[in-house]
Amino acid sequence: MTDFQATRAMFDLPDGVTYLDGNSLGPLPAAAPERMARAMRGEWGEMLITGWNKAGWMDQPARLGDRIGRLIGAPEGTTVLGDTLSIKVHQALAAALALRPERRVILSDSGNFPSDLYMAQGLVEQLGRGHELRVVAPEEVEAAIDEDVAVTMITEVDYRTGRRHDMPALIAKAHAAGALAIWDLAHSAGAVDVDVAAADTDFAVGCTYKFLNGGPGAPAFIHVAPRLIDEVQPALSGWLGHADPFAFEPGYRPGPAIARMRVGTPPVLAMAALETALDIWDGVDMTDLRAASLALGDRFIAGVEAACPELELATPREHAQRGSQVSFRHPQGYAVMQALIAQGVIGDFRAPDILRFGITPLYLSEGDIDRAVDVLAAILRDKSWDRPEFHARAAVT
């Protein structure tokens, strides 16, 4: 049984703050500053360039990739870290299209994260071979999968509403139609009970700075199914994806298995911070996490609907259709959220009218949920959100 009081103590959370934005940026693991200092002084400072060998920097992407793989149901040796999520989306999509050269349709949905769609649009233009990015409503994805589709590219949990797709069902439909499936797990890894092997996922990608708490700009990961990895030809053939990076050959030879999905030099300091976050996960059972997340989410929905009737629930009530966030709509959602943040309840806003709240049992309790409901209700009751400073848009919402 997971001890969530113990995991809460492993984070450095500011006093007086109720943090409901782990779906956007996880909080600081308490052990991270010391680990970062050790990496900087004891490794970079003392070892200098020998740290690549002595401190194991070169092995970080694969070693930490396997630790993330355990959280998403991926077999050992099929997940690797490095670069950004957009880069990993590009890698997966280019590889999938190359494996289905006779097909031209990339199928996605309007709830997908825009950056994924941007990467697909750019790749279509770059290839110049008549590919089409076909975008349908989330609930229409299954019906839209046909024999024209080369690959489905879906984010499992909608970043705005928290709606969760049925990954196994959509993968089965894609495979039956001869298509491949890419899944973006940015709002799934560390949030819900994912099993990419059981679902027979072809490619999975995700970031580590949200529910995995790796820190701002922490590296992304990519998983490739073992049955495909030796067929995949990397579109981004970076030096660390080479079979022998330090041979410095003029021509590219892809590395073995998942190593070929590496691109650039590992972000050593960022991975040091991520390592401390993954230490916390060693004591977490994902079944316990999911049950606690749903219970806290139900409590938040019930509390807000009872106290804030002017808000409209945007997140599915059904557990199977919900990720680990709860979203509500309000015409002045941005100002309401700024007023909440000013009182120490931190969520975030997504256009045009979504207030998002991440439900993260690693460090949230029932008391935190109840405080958030009370503060939100008071802000709406008193209309204290309607002040000029709360309407002023910042660069990051």
From TrEMBL:
Names of required cofactors: pyridoxal 5'-phosphate
SUPFAM superfamilies: PLP-dependent transferases
Gene Ontology process terms (BP): anthranilate metabolic process; L-kynurenine catabolic process; L-tryptophan catabolic process to kynurenine; NAD+ biosynthetic process
Domain of life: Bacteria
MF-aspect GO terms: kynureninase activity; pyridoxal phosphate binding
EC number(s) from the headed UniProt entry: 3.7.1.3
Alphabetical list of InterPro entries matching this protein: Kynureninase, PyrdxlP-dep_Trfase, PyrdxlP-dep_Trfase_major, PyrdxlP-dep_Trfase_small
Glycosyltransferase listed as a keyword: no
Catalyzed chemical reaction(s): L-kynurenine + H2O = anthranilate + L-alanine + H(+); 3-hydroxy-L-kynurenine + H2O = 3-hydroxyanthranilate + L-alanine + H(+)
Family according to the record: Belongs to the kynureninase family.
Function (record text): Catalyzes the cleavage of L-kynurenine (L-Kyn) and L-3-hydroxykynurenine (L-3OHKyn) into anthranilic acid (AA) and 3-hydroxyanthranilic acid (3-OHAA), respectively.
Subunit structure as annotated in this protein's UniProt entry: Homodimer.
Protein name as annotated: Kynureninase
Organism: Limimaricola hongkongensis DSM 17492
